Amino acid sequence: MSERRKLEVNANDSKNTRMPVAVDIGAGGTKTDHLAHLSRFGKIADLMIKESRALGHPLNLLDIGCGDVFPLQILNKAHVIRKTDVVASYRGVDIDPVVERIFDKAPSMCENMNVTIEIQDLTVNPVLNLEDASIDFAWTCEVIEHMKPEFIAAWLDEVYRVMKPGALLYVSTPNHEGSNAKLPKDHVYEWGYEELKNELESRWDLLEHTGTFIQMPRFNRAQKEHGRIPPELVEIFKSRFDGFWLRNVLAAPYPEVANNVNWLLRKPA
């Protein structure tokens, strides 16, 4: 279950929700949304390693809506690699002061990876406390949908400003096609597929994008029309995975109709 905390100051009615993934999974939780969160965090950790190797130096990282810094936790616990070869510094930005508990929960990780947390409401002050062209890899996971849409462009511009030419950006958010009249109670606005694609591509070059999870009727209709996965492979997936995992696995080739999309972009060199 998501952890909803009422903020003492919330000028523009953003929604403050964080999912305690470690608790959910430890308690046997296998909801599609939990698995989707873990898959994103694991992918970001993997991208850190690959990008640091490609560049030949450790990375300066930026995480917008950092929560409990799960990508760093995964890198720290799940990868047998010298962390200082991957991370030079990590800057997390979040609206909720509770995220600073990470310094007590994982003090050695925070010290080794040069972690800094900024408590900041980006709808009030979108300006990031970072130098121009100082970040090698930035990401924002499940953040955009918690703010009113008129506030997004300003801090996306800031993310662009602080990224180095050629730097990598990973964005994950729900993919809403249709009315925003019915939303989860912790969401403010869910962007449509083309709407967000246009917003992101106005700044960055799109490298790839994939679905995170999908409703099976949507998948079946898309597969019937486009057939991006060989039918025999679909049957293998169905024999291997339960319904929760299946919705994550089969979403990947159908971002335009998935419930949630991962966008991988790069700042023009």
Q: Can you give keywords for this protein?
A:
269 residues; globular; alpha/beta; single chain; Rossmann fold; two-stranded antiparallel sheet; seven-stranded mixed β-sheet; 36% helix
Could you explain the architecture of this structure?
The mean pLDDT is 92. The termini are far apart. The protein has one domain: Rossmann fold, CATH 3.40.50. The chain has ten helices and nine strands. The radius of gyration is 18 Å and the shape is globular. The strands form two sheets. The chain has a seven-stranded mixed β-sheet with strand order 5-4-3-6-7-9-8, sandwiched between helices. Strands 1-2 form a two-stranded antiparallel ribbon. The chain is an alpha/beta fold and 269 residues long.
**Backbone CA Rg:** 18 Å
Estimated structural class: alpha/beta
Low-confidence stretches: none
Tally of DSSP β-strands = 9
> What is the average per-residue confidence, as pLDDT, rounded to a whole number?
92
Please specify the SSE layout and strand pairing.
Layout: E1 3-4, E2 17-18, H1 21-26, H2 32-55, E3 59-64, H3 70-78, E4 87-94, H4 102-105, H5 107-112, E5 115-119, E6 135-141, H6 152-162, E7 163-174, H7 193-201, E8 205-211, H8 216-226, H9 231-240, H10 243-249, E9 260-266
Brief synopsis:
With 269 residues, this protein is an alpha/beta fold. It is built from ten helices and nine strands. Strands 5-4-3-6-7-9-8 form a seven-stranded mixed sheet, with helices on both faces. Strands 1-2 form a two-stranded antiparallel sheet.
